[in-house]
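Hello, quick one for you while I still have it in my head. I'm working through a protein record and want to make sense of it properly. Would you mind checking whether the tokens look sensible for this chain? I owe you a coffee for this, so here goes:
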Amino acid sequence: MEPIYTAIAHASGGGRDGHVRSEDDRLDFDTRPPKEMGGSGEGTNPEQLFAAGYSACFLGAVHAAGRELKLDTTDAGVSASVSIGSNGEGGFGLAVELDVYIPGLSAGDAQKVADKAHTICPYSNATRGNIEVTVSVVE
């Protein structure tokens, strides 16, 4: 792969209970485990960051797919739910649910766009075969 852009971020402190900062300082905040994992929940966590990145990236792929298929995705939206849990082997795993909303398209056309977006999105390509990702078209 020939990189077009490289993002660089640094973590310090206790990892999930620490601090993250992007090299350009556009991101700069504390991380805290959620209450469900024994933390204070007073900061963001890696799953929230992954959900934000995946939903934004997938929405870009929805628009690219819409252009390719000549379908209007102007008012589309994507919600990503990222879950963490035991992988049954002493570690942890992730699962993702993507809800894709494309008003003005039939259910069939919206599904075509979502399916095409799933082949375009770099997050989908990186996770394919590694974690469970469910893509659903919602109204």
